[in-house]
């Protein structure tokens, strides 16, 4: 597959998908784009992309089809609905799912597509909207080595770190591990900032110190400043991390594995959702700690 001659179908132009597609377009790849919610294809079409009427049409006109949608049922619909990718893909087409979904379902989808000669890669991402915009995402890829290497130039436009982690389904399993860490790190950041606020410390100064040492994390470095400023706008929504943690919980149950940290994170995020904050950013967990502590943490250092 010759780089820049590869025609890419891109399905899903949300907070993550749109900037990822724009980076591919800027890199010179011809795109055929589709979004289930109307009105999100304009900038890409203005840049030269063709808009498809459905996933089937996107697949018919593409060598590689990328999807990044919300959940497992959404990927199944994109693939296997009457007007889905499977109905339009040719033998040899590479389908890349960059959503975060069930590893079990991923293996099933791959087996169903293999009957048509379509190669399946599961390639979920980490790095949030910032990484999507900057093309610095971490991409964890499951699938056959030949297909992974075939798609690597495409991945490298969207990501700063691209790693083949094993057979189909492995990418989603690594992403489950990733989301466990993200959720637990968010709890740690909230607890630490709550302690700092209770002590009357300047929170910006605290962040400057602790992000320079062993305690640093992506959540602390990127979302800690948002907490201090009281900015709860989403880079990644609470309702979506909850969806991901449901995948983690199911995987843990299948393995008979206790995961107390992930379980507590689920309850904390559920408290945010119960208060109407499901579409806030994951840093909105701080509101739970504020209620528990009986004090405001946001902007407490100013």
Verbal overview:
The strands form 2 sheets. A 6-stranded parallel β-sheet has the order 3-2-1-4-5-6, sandwiched between helices. It has a 3-stranded mixed β-sheet with strand order 7-8-9. 48% of the residues are buried. The termini are far apart. It is α/β, with parallel strands linked by helices and 302 residues long. Strand 5 (94-97), helix 6 and strand 6 (119-122) form a beta-alpha-beta unit. It folds into 2 domains: 8-167, Rossmann fold (3-Layer(aba) Sandwich); 173-293, N-(1-d-carboxylethyl)-l-norvaline Dehydrogenase, domain 2. The chain has 14 helices and 9 strands. Helix 1 (17-26) runs parallel beside helix 7 (128-134), helix 9 (170-198) crosses helix 11 and helix 9 (170-198) packs parallel to helix 14.
Provide the fold topology.
Elements: E1 8-11, H1 17-26, E2 31-34, H2 42-46, E3 50-51, H3 55-60, E4 64-67, H4 72-80, H5 85-88, E5 94-97, H6 103-114, E6 119-122, E7 125-126, H7 128-134, E8 137-142, H8 145-158, E9 159-166, H9 170-198, H10 203-210, H11 218-229, H12 238-254, H13 260-274, H14 286-293
Parallel strand pairs: 1-2, 1-4, 2-3, 4-5, 5-6, 8-9
Antiparallel strand pairs: 7-8
Helix pairs in contact: 1-7, 9-11, 9-12, 9-13, 9-14, 12-13
